[in-house]
Fold each of these.
Amino acid sequence: MSNNIYYYSLIMQIIKIKLVKISYKLWTGKGSESLIIVKDLKKRYNDFAVLHGINLNISKGDIYGLVGRSGAGKSTLLRCINGLESYDEGKLIVNGMEMSSYNREGLREARKEIGMIFQNFSLLERKTVYDNVALPMVCWKYPNSEIDKRVNELLELVGILDKRNKRPRNLSGGQKQRVAIARALALNPKILLCDEATSALDPKTTKSILALLREINEKLGITIIIVTHQIEVVKQICNKACILENGKIVEEGSVEEIFFRQSPAMKRFLGEEEEINYSIGKSIQIFISEDLNNNAIFTQMALDLNITFSIVGGRMERYGNKNLGFFVISLKDDQYPRVIKYLDSKSIVWRDMMTNIDFIGKKGELKCEI
Amino acid sequence: MRDMNLIEILYKLILPALFDTMKMLLISTILSLIFGCIVAIVLIATEENGLRPNSCVHKVLDVIVNIIRSFPFIILIVAIIPFTRFFVGTSIGIKGAIVPLTIASTPFMARVIEGSLKEVDKSLIEAAKSFGASDMQIIFKVMFIEAIPSIISGICLGIVSLLGATAMAGAVGAGGLGAVAITYGHQSFNDKVMYSVVVVLIILVQCIQVMGNFLYNKLK
């Protein structure tokens, strides 16, 4: 009898998931305005394929994380977006224009809309902070009065107006990156590309730079794309992300989704060792967001169902301004159907550790894979 | 001439020769810098990962530079006499010396400048590209700006070796300090003249180096 309930609920869940998948696709298809559309993008260096068919959609106002280990092709993908690298096949549409369709002059013009910052800051060591920030405008022959006004504005925005006459070598890493950000914003771009922008900085400085990027995103409405190998960066500011592995996207979605899903790709990226073998009884992974946490879910469940279980693993982390986490509980076989029924009734996202099948409670919009 | 005292040697022989040397040095430095810059820019721009990759142009220029650099200077002077005559009408005197001096020094200057430009951080060039700087702006507003101190110290090296070359040119009729040291000093067995010239050359080299170091430190 209990087995029947189990299989019945399994089938229902699968149908639910399929429906969600379809609706998710419909939703993303017509969703908000796409600023960058990447379709089946391929690039190879000689015989080595760096990008094998990348598909991406980045909307206006996103802070998008391109995550992966070194050599995954994330920097190459980023450089394709502003034409620093060319691609062999596929489509890459930025601001409604195919990047490969530009000629030399057109590409220069298009790059005005796309600022970029780098891991090692890339500032002119022999020029002052002011001259560094002014350089893009000097290259585009803006009048001096306008340059002066804009540079001061930008230095104020990034919080280093007092350093305007210093040389970069007299600045700290964080300050140098602020200068680079100011320079990248000089031409009023719509998009800001960050290539491992925080990888050379200490954790505290990284936080302050990320806070600045978030502020820029919110205040100026600039879409930001961040290439990084630091998961903390994604957690802290990205709203969407994808994981690249050997030139392919192996995981994609909102940061919350990626975290809830805990896909093998995510685990491989984090380099987490295989989980403990939960061989005795049933193990369920229960995902928790802040509001659930406040309702004391575990003790409430124990009381409501009058059962006992042990918590065998878990983690809480901060993503942006939300606390997300999961706990793994171990149950006796006969408690299993009652617990999943309970979890479903409370709309709590859970996953069976044995079958690795995801089930959806409240987070109905999640795209799940079986 | 043997009974000349040191003051007379300085005034009558060395001072006029010093002017000639300086004239040769200055003109050939300026000319070789101009040509060297052009060659260096073409080399840098056409290299494999350059701004306008063109392996054909790059290789040809590279080989020409190497060929000229492998000539011993004294042979180069003689080898290009017809060319020198065609250009300035004579193969002797200051005018006749400036042509081979410039030709010998241009590849040197080109390599020095090329080397310094190559040292410029690649990501700096990418950054300049990312805000839409043109190739010319990248070369002059980014690469040269960053490379100036190291170019200066390279040029210093070039001027000193050019000074050595002017002395050699003196041996084949160009005048200047080298000619004085050889004809009035060495060949007339007059050690006083010969060593006075050497001392003047030492001072000159010192001055060039000190000036170069000063500029390097000031600009860095």
Amino acid sequence: MRQLTVQGMRGFRDRQTVSFGQVLTLVLGANGTGKTSLVEALEWLLYGRTARRERGEGLSKQEYKGSYANVHWDWHERPFVEAVVDAADGTEHTVRRELSKDESSDLYVDGEPRPDLSVLGVLSEFAKPLVMQHALQDFIHSQPKQRYRALSSMLGLEGLIRFRDDVDKLQGTAGYATSKPNRATEARAFLAHLLAEARTYAAAGRLVESLQQRPLSAQDASRVLRGLVVAAIGADLPDEAVPEALRDAQAARAREVVDWDAYRPHALTDPVLQMACPDSRSEADLAHQLVEYLQGAGDEVGRVLAEFYRMGLQLREGPDSDRCPFCHARTLTAERTAEIEAAADAATGGGQAQEAAATRLGELRKRLSAADPDSWPAVECPSDEAWERLTALLPPEAPLPQFRSAATALQRQRDECQKAYGQVTAALTHVEQRVAGLAPAEDVSNELPTRIEALASAVRAYVAALDTYRSAFNGLSPGVSETLSSQGEVRYLGFLLEAWERWSDVEIAAQDIALEESLGRFRAEVREFIEEKQKEMLATRGSEIKGWYDLLNPDELVAFSRIQPATDALQILAASYGEEMQAAPNLSASHLNCLGLAVHLGCAVGGHTPFRFVLIDDPVQSMDDHHAQRFIQGVLGKLLGDGHQVIVMTHLERVHDHIDARYRRAHNVYRLRFEAHHPEGPTITEAGPRLVELLQQAQKCSEATNESYRHEAVLSLRQFVERFVKDLFQVTTGQLIPRAYESESWPRLRRLLLRCPGFDVADEGPLEHAHEFTSSHLHEDDAAAARVPGPHEIRPHVESMQKLIAKYADQLGLDADEVQ
Amino acid sequence: MGIVSGLLTEFRDLVSDPFHKGLVEAYLESPGYEALLNECKRTMEARIDEIETTHRTGNAGLPGQADG
């Protein structure tokens, strides 16, 4: 990371470019001067979002909306963050991200649009090279499940965990089971129905077993079904013949219980309907005409005379056809013969009238024969036994009494029709005999019209009874069918038929079950795979985390011990004198802080990350002196020793100075000061070693005529004395200045001086004099404080301090150039 | 998805079930729950088609040889 330019983002309104040292950059700035804004700008540049924003959005999206851009930004152009970085191969690249108003962003690498930084080897967020104080304990003080996700994310397993969660969802209640194709859902419902039905038949026990098998084999189950079908129909028929055979068998079994179809009402033929029609008079008319004919045939003289004529004409036939057969006179001329024939025809009951009567008789018989009740389709009236069966089968509320009454009435009416028809037939026979010239005994021929009308009336009554019967039959029919189909064997055959005809549903259901079971196995495989990966990664990363932790807490008897993964949780364990315990509730805040730092460092650096730099924001602010010292010596020492570029931000001068003093001899320390923050952004300046800066400031201001400048010179001189003692102490002892020495009275400073190896006690005098001089002009309760010393009073102290710094420059890790 | 896709590819190579491989493929192509769900649906629809085609053509699918 060479330099970072920020404009319009977070605390930066105006464009500012911040450069970083190649090895160690120390950033010193009070709270609220924009340090964290710079870190967040870098985080946003790398990933397009920040952890702080994401955490905030979890609480209130509305509150955090629009918080990437600087609050004073006027949007005349897009806010951006741009970094100049060196890649692993030594090539220089420019990475730039621009913010849009909708808070989306566009990333560019060397001016080319890119979706992410994979081109530079940044493949995921887990190796985030940013260690921020405010996030250190987030990991520890979170639910084991969240902790699991956080560490999984840091281990690079976040996406895989998402994958696992997605697979879990597939098998969940709102997963595949509820959004599968409709056909599969129907098939599963059918299988459930079939299984429930099968359980009601003792004979289908093996089918139940087969359908309950997991995995379900439709092939095995089908063999069982076929066995049941063969047993039920008594034959092993070809597949295509099975449904019909099952239907036939079912119908036959139903008939054995009650042959309901036998009671189905028939349709009457047209002649019957014609007769039943009150407007149809044709049969009655014919009967009347016949009766009139017979009444005319009672004139016996005319009939005998006509017979005599016909016999005479028959007798004359021969060679002498004009000769009278009685007197043999040739009187039968053609004219006379015609006259006799006309007379014979004219005689009552003779020739043509008889033929007409015979024709009418034939017509009437034909019509009446079609209306013979015996020729009507039979409607069977249930026998007493059948009534008993029906009564037993049907529920009490079924309209069986109505049907029985209608059936009885129909039967009675049919008997009436048969009786009337018999009467008509008898009359008709007499008419027939009389037309033939015979004289039947007890002649009832004259009653023919009346009897025909009686027959018509009976047929009409029969048709009405048939309608009533049909209604009763239809009303009862569904209940009877349902009852019959639910009867033992009939129902069983229906079950076999349904199973056979919808077997494809069973096969689809079997496939669906197989798919769901497969999802279960898949879920287990994914989980197992992730757990193995976690163990594998924790085996290396866990030891790295422990390594960082141990640098901060060497040989402690109460300390973090290990991270133990489980399916959905991550246990952070600690040990107290050999006794294992949960870390979060039992370790001290300082230990937890160290652990948080170790976790972040374990994930931020190492072979798995593409970054060779790490930015650490206020790392020791809640650590005690011992831990802060171990951080500076152990952690920073290791990071720098491993060749990492390190950027440390702090608001603590003593921490800053200690790090500076400790490492400036070995490394080129680059110093940045974040000073006052303004609407346009922070004031950032590059700084030299604080010790040198203070002395330069004292020298520069000491010669000023303005009293306030000279007052500044005295203040700087005093700060130099204090800084000199502390730096020398830290550099020569490697220890952080204990908090007790924050109060800079000379006796305390002197005690530090006397503990510095290599300090020449002869130099104690100038330091003490300078301290005393500045005290006398700075302390407000001193009378001299009111007076600002003149240049000639300050100058000797500055000069003696210049000699001192030159003498100890090497020990203090200062370059000769810097001291000059 | 860099490392994750690497791990998923590794997982895909480990599993022996073609359906499971299909799910990982679908996830790699279009990461997310929808991709998995669609793959499950697609698989089931293909199996339904196959079964119904077989039954329509009458080649198979009817109960086989009766047991004992």
